Amino acid sequence: MLGIAGPDRSRRVGARRVSASPQAVGAPLTSAVGGLRVAAAVLVCGSAVLLFAVHVRPLGYVPLVLGILLAVAVDRALARDLGIIALGMSIVSAIPLAADLSDAGIARFAVALSAAVLVPWAVSRYGFGQRSIVFPCARAAAGPERRSSTWSSSWPPGT
């Protein structure tokens, strides 16, 4: 929800003004800084290969931590986003990924995967105040004024 840019090149987003300069929206200042941002993201994403495909848990956390530390040094907003991703990856890596079809194994897997989605969402939503993730059930329960035209004209079926 971006507003019209004012004469001072800022935009009104919600109740705060956000600068429209390239530095504020995350555009690379130089190619070196942009390359370091990409390197931080590659380190965090590459750690998933070590954690989940190769199954080397102690070694898999090294690029994860290095990627977040590099992001902190280069771009705080990127570090926040990569930290949320790393939080979810850490939760999933806390359980063994071997096929355990017992009731307890399925319950552990369900709890861990649910936590890997809900904990980063809660940190993003309530810790950082971001509202970038909205679950569809919240939109459907919002009432007809917030529903799209397809919801109001075709739902529920037969009406």
The DSSP helix count reads 6
As a percent range, the share of strand residues is: 5-15%
Strand order in the sheet with the most strands: 1-2
Number of domains: 1
What is the count of β-strands? 2
The profile of the biggest β sheet is: 2 strands, antiparallel
Q: Separation of termini?
A: 33 Å
Rg computed from alpha carbons, rounded to a whole number of angstroms: 21 Å
Order of H and E elements = EEHHHHHH
Shape: flat
Uncertain segments are 1-13, 17-24
Q: State the secondary-structure class.
A: mainly alpha
What is the average of the pLDDT values? 77
Approximate helicity band: 55-70%
Explain this structure to me?
- By secondary structure, this protein is mainly alpha-helical.
- The chain has one domain.
- The protein has six helices and two strands; from the N terminus they run ββαααααα.
- It has helices spanning 31-53, 57-74, 76-93, 103-127, 136-140, 149-154, and strands at residues 10-13, 16-19.
- A two-stranded antiparallel ribbon has the order 1-2.
- Helix 3 (76-93) packs antiparallel against helix 4 (103-127).
- The longest helix is centred in the last third of the chain and has 25 residues, at 103-127.
- The chain is flat, with a radius of gyration of 21 Å.
- The two termini are 33 Å apart.
- The relative contact order is 0.07.
- Mean pLDDT is 77; it is low at 1-13 and 17-24.
